[in-house]
From TrEMBL:
Binding residue positions for K(+): 229, 231, 265, 268, 270, 274
Gene name per UniProt: rbsK
InterPro entries per record: Carboh/pur_kinase_PfkB_CS (IPR002173), PfkB_dom (IPR011611), Ribo/fructo_kinase (IPR002139), Ribokinase (IPR011877), Ribokinase-like (IPR029056)
GO molecular function: ATP binding; metal ion binding; ribokinase activity
Residues annotated to bind substrate: 14-16, 42-46, 140, 235
PROSITE patterns: PFKB_KINASES_2
Organism from which the protein derives: Candidatus Phycosocius bacilliformis
Cofactor binding mode and count: Requires a divalent cation, most likely magnesium in vivo, as an electrophilic catalyst to aid phosphoryl group transfer. It is the chelate of the metal and the nucleotide that is the actual substrate.
Subcellular location: Cytoplasm
Reaction catalysis annotation: D-ribose + ATP = D-ribose 5-phosphate + ADP + H(+)
Keyword Metal-binding carried by entry: yes
A Pfam entry, by short name: PfkB
Carbohydrate kinase PfkB domain residues: 6-277
Designated name of the protein: Ribokinase
Length: 288
């Protein structure tokens, strides 16, 4: 593919309210001394930005409330040239919010209050009259909405099965590419093993593997880094994988590039604030 890949992302938009702490609380425990920050987030918005930053033309379809959180949530996407015409502003709803704790190793805990994301439905989705190279979804919108997208979208469909939840087989059967982490892979188990889709499984700091018809077809290691904040690393991986796969047509090359992009995204705090440029990804690849 010689032109910039065109990717349509149908997904969530959140404002991330983040507290950095030494250690994350266990159930029933209170930890103090947190340092608070607000960052744009949401798996859909993050993946849209990652793909845009790495060279794709991207449109984002979703919803926010009519509130201050919406302007914060959309600021980096807007400044980066993601097409936001498909983002509805809903009067009676609040923008989605994620409450995130990040510990000294960069590990996180996330609680999402979806707000307007819950209202994205067949009724609010625009008519998809423009052709794109791929459509990308996650599972932070209602399952019925993803089911509708799977049934009506033409062309390449990639679904990041995050966060894991029960799904009708029609969604899994329609997807050309399914991206999971190890927890999600264990959750779907057999359904993935039997799937006809290309399965991309991320392995955290160990890299990622591609599986087709139950057979490993490619594997990549992650560059060794000292993570500051892992929030959004998986989203960066997905965006980077799609851009490279569409551009190069090679699963192996896309895995290698996406592992480096995901690692680069852990070097700074925040989800969207940490998304790398192509130069940063290449620099990390050159070191490894
Ligand atoms: O994947 C990270 C994202 O998950 C955060 O930005 C948060 O908003 C939640 O959706």
């Amino acid at each position: 593919m010689t032109h910039q890949p065109r990717i349509r992302v149908i997904g969530s938009i959140n404002l991330d309210i983040v507290a950095r702490v030494e250690t994350l609380p266990r159930p029933g425990e209170t930890v103090s001394g947190g340092i608070l920050a607000h960052y744009p987030g949401g798996k859909g918005a993050n993946q849209a930005l990652a793909a845009r930053r790495l060279g794709a033309e991207v449109e984002l379809i979703g919803a926010v409330g009519r509130d201050d959180a919406a302007s914060q949530a959309l600021a980096i996407l807007r400044a980066s040239g993601v097409d936001l015409h498909g983002v509805k502003v809903l009067d009676a709803m609040t923008t989605g919010v994620a409450l995130i704790g990040v510990d000294r190793h960069g590990e996180n805990q996330i609680i999402v209050a979806p707000g307007a994301n819950e209202q994205v439905s067949e009724a609010t989705l625009p008519v998809f009259d423009q052709m794109v190279d791929a459509t990308l979804c996650q599972l932070e919108l209602p399952v019925a909405t993803i089911e509708h997208v799977a049934a009506t979208t033409k062309g390449l469909l990639c679904i990041n099965l995050a966060p894991a939840q029960p799904l009708p087989p029609s969604i899994l059967n329609r997807a050309d590419i399914l991206v999971v982490n190890e927890t999600e892979s264990a959750f779907y188990g057999d359904m993935l093993d039997k799937s006809r889709s290309l399965i991309i499984k991320t392995l955290g700091s160990r890299g990622a593997v591609a599986i087709q018809h139950g057979r490993e077809i490619a594997r990549a290691a992650s560059p060794k880094i000292d993570p500051v904040d892992t929030t959004g690393a998986g989203d960066t991986f997905v965006g980077a994988f799609m851009v490279t796969f569409l551009r190069e047509g090679s699963v192996a090359k896309a895995l290698t590039y996406a592992c480096a992009a995901g690692a680069a995204a852990t070097l700074t705090a925040g989800a969207q604030t940490s998304m790398p440029t192509p130069e940063q990804v290449l620099a990390l690849l050159a070191q490894s």
